[in-house]
Amino acid sequence: MKKITSKADLMAMYESTKGKLALRLATDKLNKLDSPKKDVLICGDTGCLVSNSQDIIANLKAEVKAAGLENDVNVIQTGCFGFCAQGPIVKIMPENVFYVKVTPEDAKEIVEKHLKNHQLVERLVYVEPTLKAQITDYQQMPFYKKQQRIALRNCGLIAEENIEEYIAAEGFQGLAKALTEMKPAEVVQLVLDSGICGRGGAGFPTGMKWKIAAGVQADEKYIVCNADEGDPGAFMDRSIMEGDPASVVEAMAIGAYAIGAKQGLVYIRAEYPLAVKRLQLAIDQARELGLLGKNILGTDFCFDIEIKLGAGAFVCGEETALIHSMEGQRGEPTTKPPFPANIGGGYWGCSTNVNNVETYASIPIILRKGAEWYSKIGNWKTERDENGHWVKTISGNAGTKVFALAGQVNNVGLVEVPMGTTLREIIYEIGGGIAGGREFKAVQTGGPSGGCITKENLDTPIDYGALMRIGSMMGSGGMIVLSDKDCMPAMAKFYLGFTKDESCGKCTPCRIGTRRMLEMLEQICDGKADENTLAELEDLANTVKDTALCGLGQTAPNPILATLRYFRDEYIAHVRDKKCPAGTCTKLYQLFITDACKGCTKCARNCPVGAITGTVKQQHVIDQSKCIKCNACIDACPFKAIVKK
User: Fold this and answer.
1) Across 384-388, 410-414, 492-496, 560-564, least confident range
2) Which three-class secondary structure string do you get for 503-559?
3) To 10 degrees, the CA torsion angle through 441, 446, 450, 453?
4) Alpha carbon separation from 385 to 188, 191, 207, 389, 397 (Å, rounded)
5) pLDDT tens for residues 114-125?
6) 312-328: per-residue pLDDT in tens?
7) For residue 326, which of 339, 343, 313, 342 has the smallest C-alpha distance?
8) Rounded Cα gap, residues 380 and 391, in angstroms
């Protein structure tokens, strides 16, 4: 690749490469199914690779070659499309045909039928669960209709391991604008005016964070990307790093220019090998093009990036613990001040700015399109002050937020929506409603440290303040939908088990408090607690929330406090009646076969421990001393003759 030494060089490369994406972006009515030129896009992120998408790619390439279509068809590996429940996905452009749950064996039919003979492979077309209708154009799917992809704008569109494709998608034009048209303070002000807040969970204004770091007078500063995000459910950051890693590289360079840093560090967990590989490749390619290193784009700005591998500790999502880990120390948080931006508080005691992947991914497009464009996305109302800057007039946040939508919902996947979108819209329109036609109970937002939101608050607009007011939090973007089959005390126990294990142990409230809260939840779910236990649990949860050292400990009790607030009746049923209303706490029920049994023997044949006996056409019996309550018999029984009591 030819080295880029000026903005003119960058724009020349953009002009010469943007044709690579033209076919994928051309979706007008003139591009019919029989268009001779095709781009075949296949998801190549971690989830789909586990589902053999690499074999799909290889088979498609082989079949395209065998059909003599090499000059008319490009088979391209991309990042995540977001619709994870339907993966592996194959998307054919320019007609926007969307094939789902594709297997390597389907490659021959796709090439023969669709690419060669211009016919749909109907059995692979997506069927919308509520409409019960096939939808071939992904842009018409309810899952995508209300989304506005900014942080995820290139995922599923560009070949993630080719930086030229990122440039073809207007990549590095934000950096070029910053370096050649703006002073560092102007970049900071633009980010401040945009209204973007940190997407890692705290929601602190990104521009303010940059302004504080820029105001520190020091020769040595660092800019850090938190790509660890302790919450294991926060795979949106991993998807960006796997599907659009160059956007993080560009954004860090912009941020470094704004605050006066010469060195960037990406802290990423080693358990993300594909993300590490692609991010390192993007760094190497940017360096080769002259977009990292000395005198970037012919200016006196010099900046480079290196990767620091972490061990996946939840607490290292907190910036001071992250910094200690990068220094080779134990990942423990420290009290603030000094903040990382202050001298003495950052990496090796130097002023350090930390943002997460999703925050950085939005920065380049904000530089290109401006603060006014971004600030109008979401639920902000804006007006200009006497200096011409945009002032936010209501609480909330500008821009979009990516959520990992999972749990008891039909359309599982990554969704990016404007701030102010309601929970109801996300769950019932984008998510397609509750799986299996069950009744909605709650949605857990904010990951292990979040809270639950009930149906009474389904019309709450998504923003940082609104979620806090109803006892939850944004967090890093986890959104777990719960139905009537989910037990709320058991859910709180599950999350406490995680936070207890992930406590760094530095402060007593978190180290001991999480363990004791988990013990009480175990007693509740086992039917061994009483109402005094509930009072003790609530008191301890509030104490830990008020006294723990860092955000992990302070928010660890949230699942308990939220479920006690909204589902106290379920806790009462566990401790007073020794019953689990959801029927999931195994110590609080037994399985019985009713007289609806026809003696078909399916239950006995599917019992893994031989706990069911009976003869053909006679009512069967469960030996309670042997039953392990795996519920395999319930799933197997065609007559619904097995009940929990």
Assistant:
1) 384-388
2) CCCCCHHHHHHHHHHHHHHHHHHCCCCCHHHHHHHHHHHHHHHHHCCCHHHHHCCHH
3) -30
4) 17, 16, 17, 6, 18
5) 999 989 999 999
6) 777 888 889 899 999 99
7) 313
8) 10
Strands, E assignment, 181-289:
221-227, 263-269
CA–CA distances in Å: residue 42 to residues 50, 74, 126, 162: 13, 11, 15, 15
Q: Tokens 């990104």 belong to which residue?
A: 206
Supply 85's token pair. 């429940």
CB 202, CB 319: distance < 8 Å: no
CB 238 within 8 A of CB 225: no
Distance CA 498, CA 312 (A): 13
Amino acid type, 195: G
Highest-pLDDT range among 71-75, 171-175, 330-334, 502-506: 171-175
Q: How many residues does the chain have?
A: 645
Is 3.10.20.600 the CATH classification of the domain at 400-486? yes
For residue 258, give both structure tokens.
Answer: 């704004």
CATH number for the domain formed by residue range(s) 32-145: 3.40.30.10
DSSP run (H or E) holding 391: strand 390-392
- Local structure of 284: helix, strand or coil: helix
* Mean pLDDT for all residues in the chain: 89
What sign results for the dihedral spanned by CA atoms 533, 534, 540, 544?
A: positive
- Closest residue by Cα to residue 4 from 294, 296, 280: 296
The model's pLDDT over 193-248, given as tens digits with 9 standing for 90+, comes to 998 988 876 778 999 999 999 999 999 999 999 987 555 445 778 899 999 999 99
| The two three-digit tokens of residue 107, written as one number | 């490659």
The helix or strand, by DSSP H or E, that contains position 237, with its residue range, turns out to be: helix 235-243
Element (H, E) at 450: none
Amino acid symbol at 231: D
What residues contact 90, with CB distance under 8 A and at least 6 apart?
A: 40, 41, 42, 56, 60, 99, 102, 106, 110, 124
Assigned token pair, 161:
């391991």
| Alpha carbons 542 and 111: distance in angstroms, whole number | 60
Structure confidence at residue 379 (pLDDT): 58
Q: Could you state, in order of their start, the residue ranges of all structural domains in the chain? A: 32-145, 168-375, 400-486, 489-577, 590-644
Spatial contact of 88 and 102, defined as CB atoms under 8 Å apart: yes
pLDDT tens profile 432-447: 999 888 899 999 887 7
Query: How do the residues of the chain divide into helix, strand and coil, expressed in percent and rounded to 5?
Result: 45, 15, 40
The secondary element (H helix, E strand) that includes residue 185 is helix 184-194
**pLDDT top residue among 555 and 580:** 580
Overall CATH class of domain 590-644: alpha beta
Q: Which residues pair with 41 in a beta bridge?
A: 76, 91
Take residue 82 and report the two structure tokens written for it: 């977001």
77: left (phi over 0), alpha (psi -120 to 50) or beta: beta
* CA diameter of the chain: 87
Write the CATH number of the domain with boundaries 168-375. Answer: 3.40.50.11540
Contact 187, 257 (CB under 8 A): yes
**Residue 110 vs residues 125, 175, 305, 379: alpha-carbon distances, Å:** 11, 40, 42, 43
Which CATH number is 489-577's, of 1.20.1440.230, 3.40.50.300, 2.40.160.10, 3.90.550.10? 1.20.1440.230
Q: Which two tokens stand for residue 609?
A: 């421990």
> Which residue type occupies 435?
A
Q: Is the dihedral of CA 559, 565, 569, 573 positive or negative?
A: positive
